[in-house]
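Hi C.,

You asked whether I'd gotten around to modeling the 616-residue construct. I have! Everything is below, sequence then structure, no commentary in between.
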Amino acid sequence: MTDLGTLLGEAVDGSLAFLRRADADAAADIEALRRRAVTRPSVVVVGETKRGKSSLVNALIGVPDLSPVDAAVATATYLEFVPGSPPGAQAWLPDRAQPVPLELGQLRDWATVLGQLPDDTRPPRRIEVTHSAPLLQYLSLVDTPGTGGLDPLHAEVALDAAAQAGALLFVVDASGPFTRPELEFLIEASKRVNVVVFALTKTDAYPGWRTILSDDRAQLQTHAPRFAQAPWFPVSARLAQLSMTMPGEAGTELVRESRIAPLQHALIELAGKGHLLRQANLLRAVRSELVRLDLRAGERLTATDPDPADVAKARADRSALAARKRTESRQWSLTLNTETQRARVEATGKLRTYVAELQDELLTRIDKAKSDELKALPSDLDTALQALSVRLSQDLEHLFRKVAEKVLAQVFGADELQFVLARLNATLRHALTSRPPRDTGTDNMMIAMSAGGMAFMAGRGAMAGASALGASALLGGGLLVPVAGLGLGLAAGAFILYRRRAQSDRAQARLWLRDVLSEARAALSDEIMHRFTDLQYALTLSLDDAIERRLAQLDAHIAEIDKALADDKAERARRRAGVAAEREAIRSRIKQVDTVLVRARTLSPAPTTTDDQEQA
């Protein structure tokens, strides 16, 4: 290991020196990573929702329900489990310098969308949980939000956590092989992490897990060969949790069947190589930057000897876009307005249906309730309104995405979207933050808490470039307009009025319920209108900006080609030779890095050698 440590250190020093000459900014970023203080190794757990990720974390730590398990309530918060006694937690909020202390029983409130945070409190980005569990004496374990369907908000947080990992624990389950988004997320997350360990969960629920394991390995061999030899650990978190409730031989047998112990030992083994993992990760990060420079050098090499057909295509694309801007801008505006109005009507209709269903359900409950049961009506209604708000927020996110996709697909072709999406986020954020704040108003019975707009985000593939995803994938699934969640609940005045007027009277309870639901519907209808107004405003500005930026990009590309054509043959050959030599130096450095990284594969733990795995 000492020889490997020396080899890694020399490779990092030499490669960083090379990168510093080629791209000083990229080298500075990695130098910042190198200087970051790391007190203990960390393993970051990533994966899609509903893969049993949080259940696995709880099984590894040995504490049931420590990490909130419900896949439907994940937020953009990640939980970092560290050693400490007594058990507790603290949340880091975006607008506070000091963390907020929490009890373990509050984790669900602070780390899930169905929890209730104090008024005017923004959801935390990170929650540190201290516990005296044996595994945490060796390493920190980070449970990231599930990236269901590669939800960009959750994926961004998971990728941010992964960038600081010593190693990744990538969780899939035995219900089916890798999905394409999982493979793409794996590739992106591992750009700065060298060691990835795979856990196949829910083996107790799917007897055919060996076949799935074989299929997963085959997919890695085909689509991500770097991970073809990575260790796999089939596990059952459910059996591990059951073992904690059963004493004696029965508990021991369940522990063996869960296969959690081999994974725990593998992670502890990794933790003992913390310094080497960090060096390997730095080298992996340098390699990712060198690959980017290689791709850029290839583009420059092509530009030194342009194909006349490329010149003609670039000029035609530029002329076509400029002409469309002059002749079709009115049509695009009408399309945006039409789609926005259609989506607004659909959202309002969903709200009307949700409120009507809730009213019918609660009126039936009032008719059947006993006098004492009527006292619980305000609490039940408050919970129902919170759930309704969550459901409506999800509907709005879906509708916003449909509007944006239809408008952008009409303006830009699939091959142009990769250029457009890279800058669209910043434009939309600026458009929303530059609008004058509006007064949402309050009522003595109801409070509607506006979340203040939304952020338009492209998928990771758009930000990483066409090398990670094709342009068709960007249009098909990478376009999202997540909205900050709507918040709706009973104000204190509603409870007071209920106690005074309707606490034990069915007729008064019915009247009170209809009044409150009427106020709730009006408040949410107003909020929906404002949200769609914000969307239309932001998309209008960002669309104009995207067109201008695309025209500028085409102009720059055409100018570069024109310059190459204006040079004589000898000058073009000289420039081409210079770029070719630069690219060859980059590729030579990548080969040197790869040689060292192959040696660093010994850092990965060996998989378990149970009979089950040998059969797989």
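If it helps when you're writing up: The CA atoms of residues 46 and 170 lie 5 Å apart.

Thanks,
B.
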